[in-house]
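Hi F.,

I've been meaning to write this up properly since the lab meeting, where we talked about keeping a consistent format for the predictions we share between groups. The idea is simple: the sequence comes first, exactly as it goes in, then the structure tokens exactly as they come out, then a line or two of notes. No screenshots and no reformatting. I'm using this chain as the first example so we have something concrete to point to.
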Amino acid sequence: MTQPKPFKLKRRPVFAIFRALIMRTFYRKPQVTVLEKIQQPCIFVSNHDAKRGPVVAELYLPVRTAKWGAYQMLCDYNTRRKYLRDIFYMKKQGMGRKLASFKAFFEAFFSLFIYRGMNFLPTYTDARLTKTINESVEVLKSGMSVFIFPEDSDGGYREVMQKFFPGFVMLAEAYYRKTGTDLPIYPVYYHAKRKKMVIGRPRFAHKLKEEGLDRNAIAEILKDDVNSLLFDYIKN
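Output, unedited:
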């Protein structure tokens, strides 16, 4: 299997035109509610809402971010096609193989352009996650924030999330070790049907760690914060 090319944080003028003329046409602006002024750099953690969450965050979040995404989507065409067919459409969305194959065949042609344009950092489920964290620390040190979708979506994307993976906590820890700064971590919830996005009040991983909580417990707290935005602000 091929590997993604090295991540480069840069502006892409062709993508900016595509973003303004095409993406905004298909993804209309939701009602965006910010509960507390955003301090940058920071980490955002959010539900995924299938492919809609990352795109809407790119278009309408009030700050520019780099994002974590599956490394397969930043590899060659066949790797992207297989990931879209087998994982994204069939496993996570329960789509039949024929329809999933049809959609993945076409989407894989242009998905790399979109992923790079949205500044996606390749993420892994093994020891290579260290590389993602190190690259993310450099992004944060440059003053840009990082947007992460940590929900466990193996059983599909849920309206109420059941579990968050703690990779974002590891990132906050790494940034603290290198800079001495306890980054704010903002919970975010996006609901496509209700056309709402809410950015909640931040938590601070080092502070929670000093209170005796481990990574998984901190991830659980942020998961609950994101779900609370659904019930307190989206459905109300």
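Notes:
The mean pLDDT is 94.
Residues 97-117 form the longest helix (21 residues).

If this format works for you, I'll send the rest the same way.

G.
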